[in-house]
Amino acid sequence: MAGNHSTPAWHAIDQIAVLKQLKSSPDGLTVTEAAQRLSQDGPNLLPESQTRGPLKRFFAQCHNVLIYVLLAAALITAILGHWIDTGVIIGVVIINAIIGFIQEGKAEDALRAIKKMLSSQALVLRDNKRITVPAEDLVVGDIVFLQSGDKVPADCRLLKTKSLQIQESALTGESVPVEKGSDPVVEDAVLGDRNSMVFSSTLVTYGQGVGVVVATAADTEIGHISTLLSQVETLTTPLLRQMADFGRLLTGIIIIIATLTLIFGVMVHGNSVSDMFLAAVGLAVAAIPEGLPAIMTITLAIGVQRMAKRQAIIRLLPAVETLGAITVICTDKTGTLTRNEMTVTNIATAGGGLFDITGVGYDPHGDFLFEDSEIDFGNHPVLTELTRSALLCNDAVLKKDNADWVLQGDPTEGALLTLGLKAGLNLAFEHETWPRTDIIPFESQHQFMATLHHDHTGQGVSYIKGAPERIFSMCDSHRVGIHDEAIDLAYWHSQMEVMARRGQRVLAIACKKSPAEHHDLTFTDIEQGLTLLGIVGMIDPPREEAIIAVKQCQSAGIKVKMITGDHAVTAIAIGKQMDIGDGKNALTGHDIQAMTDEELQQVVNDVDIFARSSPEHKLRLVTALQATGHVVAMTGDGVNDAPALKRADVGTAMGQNGTEVAKDAAEMVLADDRFSSIVDAVEEGRTVYDNLRKAVLFILPTNGGEALVIIAAILMGITLPITPVQILWVNMITAVTLALALAFEPPESNVMLRSPRDPKQPILTPLFLWRISFVSLILMVGTFGLFIWQQTQGAEIEYARTVAVNTLVMFEIF
Fold first, then answer.
1. Calpha distance 674→222 (Å, rounded)
2. Are 82 and 164 in contact (CB under 8 A)?
3. Quick one: which of 98, 63, 65, 100 has its CA closest to 246?
4. Among 353, 359, 355, CA closest to 339
5. 20 to 30 Å CA-CA from 87: which of 340, 465, 475, 702?
6. 668-686, pLDDT tens digit by residue?
7. What per-residue confidence (pLDDT) applies to 671?
8. Dihedral sign, CA of 702, 705, 706, 707?
C-alpha cells in the first residue's frame, strides 16, 4: 500500500524533524527507552497467519451439493440396512475428498517465505554505544548502521550515507541497485523513488549508511505486502465455477425427479415407502457422475505432466484448465520480458555520430555498427579509447559458467566491461599495460567514479565515468578522432535525448592525461580540464523468445500488458520493441493512485503499459481487469508481485530468478524463466479443457442412461434392472477407465489460432445437452430392453441384472 499509509511521509521530512517526531536523537535510544517501546509496539516480526488444520481442510472437501446428495443416499441405505450400498457410497465420497485435500494449499507458504527474507540481527546505537541486537528487538527510533552485504532489518529514514546502494529489485522491480542519500524527496514519490529511505528485507550492495527506524513488523513495506497477501482471496477457476453450477442444477433436478418417482411408486403402484426410498437412492446414484471428479483430476494431472516437460511447473491443479481461458497476461518487465542484464546498445562520440552495438546481456560477443555497417576500429580511435576506459574504470568481474556469462559486481559496470570485450580488448593485457594506481570510488554526492593508470613508459591517464551533466561540467573539450576540440554541449544534449527516447540509461566517459610522477588521485586533479570521449546508452534488453511469445499470445486473442516498477520512458521503449502498447502512452503509479476503482476499470482495457507501480497498484490492476470480465494471468519474480500473483486467476512466478515469496503465491512456476513457456502452457491448458469436454460428453450419457433405466422401471412398476452398487461400479470403474483415453488426446490443429473461450459459457452447451440426451436414450432403450427380454425368457433377476450391466458397459465401449 505504498504511498497510501496513514503514517507520515518520512522520505519527505528533514532528518532533524524525523528524529524529533520519533523522539529519538543521533545518539540513539537508551536501553530503557528501547525496552519500553518494544513492550508497547511488540517485536519486529510479521504476524502469524491463521491457517486451517488438516482435519478442517479434509472435511471442507465435502462442501459440495453433489456430495451432500451422496451422503444423504448413504444415510438412507444405512437406515434401510443395505450396508454394502452404504459402504460403497461412503468410499466414493472419501476418495473424492482425498483428491481435493491433496490439491489444496499455497498462500500460507508465501507468507512463510516472506518471513524468511527478514534480517536476523542489526547493529544499533543505544546509550551512545554500538551493539548488535536481534532484528526482532528493533523499535521505532533506533539508530541503525548499514554496510555492504547487510539485509536492511526495518524501514529506515537515512541520516547519513557514503556511496550507499541498495538492491530493491524484489520489492520495486528496479533491475539495478538504487543509489541512496539522506536528502528529503518529494512527498508523492512512489516507492522506487524514495531515495532517502531503505526498506526491510532489501540488500545493501555497496557503501555504508546510518538510518533511524521509522517502521517495524507489519508497518514496513514488506509487512504491507504480507498483509495484502493474507487479505487477497484466491479465486475459483472457471471450470470449478461451471462444475459447481452444474452440480447445483443437477442436484435440483435429481431431488425433484426422485421425489416425484417416489410418490408415483407409492401412490400409483402401491409400493412400500422403504422400497421406493431405495429406488430413489438408486436414481440419485445413477444420475450423479461419481467418476467425473476422478477423470477431471486425472486429465488435469496429465496436463501437469505435459506442461512440466515444457518448463511450466503447476502448483495448483485446477490452474491447468484455467490457462486455457486466459484473456489477459499481465507481465512484469524486469527478468520476465527482459534479461535482467544491462547492455550497452548505443555510443555517441563527437564527430562520429551514433553507433549501434549488437549482442545482449553479458555475453562479450557483438558488433559495432554505424548506419547498419560494421565499423573498422582503425578509423575510430576515439572508440578504442572510450571502450578501454570502460574496461579499466571498472570493478566488475565476468566469468563463464558453462554456456552462460555470470556477473560479479554492479550491473552497470558489467555492461561496460562487456562493451570493452566486444571491442576486442583483452582484459588481462589492458590491466597489465595500464595498471591502476589510485581510485576515487563512486558516491552519489559527486556522481562519478575515477581511476588513475600508468603505463610502463612514464605516461599517466585518468579515466572518469558518471552522470552526464556532472561529467559535462568537468570537461572543457571533447575528442574528435585523435584531436581535442571545445566541447559542444548542445550536440551532447541532443544525443542524450535520442538515447532517453529509447529508454536508455546514459553515462558519460571522459579522460585526462596525468604526469608520470603523479600516483595519487584527488578531486582537484579532475574537477576541470577533462576531455569527453563520449556517452553510452544502456538498457535491460528484451528476451528474443519473449518477443516471439508476445506475438503468439496476440495471435491467440490474448492481450499482453506490462506492469512494472520501472520508469515510464524505459517501459514504453521496451514495450515498443515487443509490440506492447502504442509506443507513446503509459499509466504511472501516480495516475493509478489518483483513480477510483471504477475509473480504473474504465481505462484499464485501453492501456497496455503501467509504470512505477507499487504492490497495491499491481493488485488493483489485476482486480480491475477481472471486474471487466477478463481471466487474468500475472507473471512476476519479486516480493512486490506476490499479492497480484495470488489474486490473479493464474499467478506465474519465475523459477530461476524468482523469490520464494513469488513462487509460493503462484499457481505456476516457469522453470526456465522464459515468457515463451507461458504460451506453451496456454496451449496445454486449452487442450486440457478440450479433453475434459470430451470426457464429460462420454461420461454423462452413461449417467443419463442409468437414470432413465431406473425411472422406466419405477414407472412400469417392475424390479430395478441395476442396483446402486452396480451403478457405482460402472460409474467409478468402467466409465473412468474408458474415459482415460480421451485425457491423452493431442492438441487440435487450431488450438492456438482461436480466441479464448468465454469463461461464462457453460460447459454443457445446447448441442452438448442434445447429444447427451440422445445417447442416454439409446443406452436406456438397449439396457432396459435386454433386461425385459431376459425376464420374459424366465431368467433370474441376478442374471437379468448382469446382462443389463454388461449391456451398459458394452454401450460405453462402442
1. 27
2. no
3. 65
4. 359
5. 702
6. 888 888 888 888 899 998 9
7. 84
8. positive
Is 533:389 a contact under the CB 8 Å cutoff? Answer: yes
The region, left, alpha or beta by phi > 0 then psi within -120 to 50, assigned to residue 723 is beta
Phi, psi (5° rounding) for residue 365?
-125, 130
* Residue-wise pLDDT tens digits, 755-772: 898 877 777 788 888 999
pLDDT digits (tens, 9 = 90+) for 220-271: 988 888 887 777 666 566 776 777 777 778 878 888 888 898 898 888 878 8
Where in the sequence numbering do the catalytic residues fall?
332
The separation between CA 566 and the C-alpha centre of its own chain, rounded to angstroms, equals 16
pLDDT of residue 110: 47
Give the domains, in start order, of the chain with CATH numbers.
Answer: 10-49+111-231 (2.70.150.10), 241-306+682-813 (1.20.1110.10), 315-338+543-675 (3.40.50.1000), 343-539 (3.40.1110.10)
Using DSSP, how many helices (H) and how many strands (E) does the chain show? Answer: 30, 28
E strands, 601-667, in order: 609-611, 632-636, 650-654
Q: In the chain, which residues have pLDDT < 50?
A: 1-5, 103-108, 110-111, 114
Number of C-beta neighbours around residue 689 at 10 A? 23
SS (H, E, C) 740-796: HHHHCCCCCCCCCCCCCCCCCCCCCCHHHHHHHHHHHHHHHHHHHHHHHHHHHCCCC
Between CA 343 and CA 361 the distance in angstroms is 5
pTM metric for this prediction: 0.73
Q: What distances in angstroms separate CA 426 from CA 81, 432, 437, 493, one per listed residue?
A: 89, 10, 19, 32
| Interaxial angle between packed helices 273-287 and 65-79, expressed in degrees from 0 to 180 and rounded to the nearest 10 | 150
Tell me, what's the pLDDT at 53? 65
